UniProtKB/TrEMBL annotation:
Broad class of enzyme this protein falls into: transferase
Protein name: Sulfotransferase family protein
Keywords from the UniProt entry: Transferase
Pfam families, A to Z: Sulfotransfer_4
InterPro entries registered for this protein in UniProt: P-loop_NTPase, Sulfotransfer_4
Domain of life according to the entry: Bacteria
The organism of origin for this protein: Sulfitobacter sediminis
Length: 206
């Protein structure tokens, strides 16, 4: 199964809501970090690639999925865009200051959290996230600069007719127009807010 939609946006740009939206639109299953978090067996191939020197096999990493958003998949947006040339690219964005505030209260905390021995796959996730993020977000100024450079890089590399720059909170209309599908009657989903992420992080440590 080839990817039909590739998410190039950083985590904490509404990616989980976008995941749910793509599932509602019939473009799922949609890959997201939560798929790895909630299915321990899915962590190993990602860990093998980022930490173990395994060759990149996008078909393996995204096996069974029609779309992808969020890290770690978004880190491989260039490779995925080349591997799946018919796929459309969605670059989810938000105000850089708001993004940093959300990241620093969620993913940054997760990276610094000691996971219990009974959750080895969560330690694997921490390890491979540390590989591709490194110290890029060590300070607010550096993180925001990286965030803005990433947006510019995607816009420069992907043809305009293949790319949707999707602002957090834009709802169904621009997304459905880009994907050429009808607008659903139900409201656009709103999931994985900062509080929900923090609560889940606490659960994983208990």
């Amino acid at each position: 199964m080839a990817l039909d939609v590739i998410g190039a946006g950083f985590g904490r740009t509404g990616t989980d809501s976008l995941r749910e939206a793509l599932n509602i639109l019939g473009l799922g299953p949609c890959h997201h970090m939560h798929e790895i978090r909630d299915n321990p067996e899915k962590a190993q191939p990602w860990h093998d690639y980022f930490c173990g020197g395994a060759p990149l096999d996008l078909d393996l990493l995204f096996e069974g999925y029609r779309s992808q958003v969020d890290w770690p998949g978004a880190h491989l947006w260039r490779e995925s865009a080349e591997r799946y040339p018919e796929a459309k690219i969605i670059l989810s964005i938000r105000d850089p200051e708001d993004w940093w505030a959300s990241y620093s209260k969620t993913i940054k905390v997760f990276r610094e959290t000691e996971m219990p021995p009974e959750a080895p796959h969560m330690r694997q996730i921490q390890e491979f996230v540390d590989v591709f993020l490194g110290d890029r977000f060590a300070t607010k100024d550096r993180a925001i600069a990286d965030f803005e450079e990433h947006i510019a890089a995607v816009k420069s590399a992907i043809p305009a007719d293949r790319l949707l720059t999707y602002e957090l909170g834009s709802g169904w209309e621009p997304l459905c127009a880009f994907l050429e599908v009808p607008v659903p009657e139900k409201p656009y989903p709103h999931t994985n807010a900062t509080k929900a992420f923090q609560e889940r992080n606490i659960e994983l440590r208990e």
